[in-house]
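Case study 2.
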Amino acid sequence: MPSDAPGRHAVVTGTSSGIGRAIAEALLGDDWQVIGIDRAGAALEHARLTAVTADLTVPGAVEDLLSRVDTPHAIVHAAGFMRTGALGAIDVDDGEAMWRLHAGAATRLANALLPRMAEAGRGRMVLIGSRASQGMPERSQYAASKAALIALARSWAAEVVTRGVTVNLVSPAATDTAMLADPNRAATRPRLPPIGRLIRPEEVAALVLFLLSDSAAAITGQDIVICGGASLLR
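Prediction:
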């Protein structure tokens, strides 16, 4: 899937809504060429956006897709969802589905593209985590799948740190996206951060854009939290 556009190229998952869409819009606004991978249909239209419909949890499908993609300058894994459940009402299938999308898809993306980026001597990978990875009531399976991203990012960062490639995590607190209106989490409403409002998707996108820049070349293996002050209350 070669691109005809010169300059920087990024593979971004979850561009149909929320944080992923905000990241894609920020990249396009900064003259990046974006390949957006979503299970749902494309929600954005832009001359520099190539929208691809694919299920990131299907073994083989992602690898086949990425084998036809030119080596990107950046990978951003923003696709995700949340299912909640208190002890005694945990749905194991929900947990497995979140693991396949959050940790499993991240692994497929990294395994297919990071070695190629390292060979090229340049590249950035940013995973979208969650402040819930520290542990939250009734979010144990979601928290576990997001916490795994921290270990994955640090491990991969250590493997490519000498080859011009960085791997980082951005972990927002409750963010103003459609995920908050999902009926599957109606019983566990988010807590408002001390700043008095939810995190905005464009704030997350701005940090991601910086981590993809040349100015962030010395930052790798880090989990950067955007919490609106919530982490101050310990």
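Residues 92-120 form the longest helix (29 residues).
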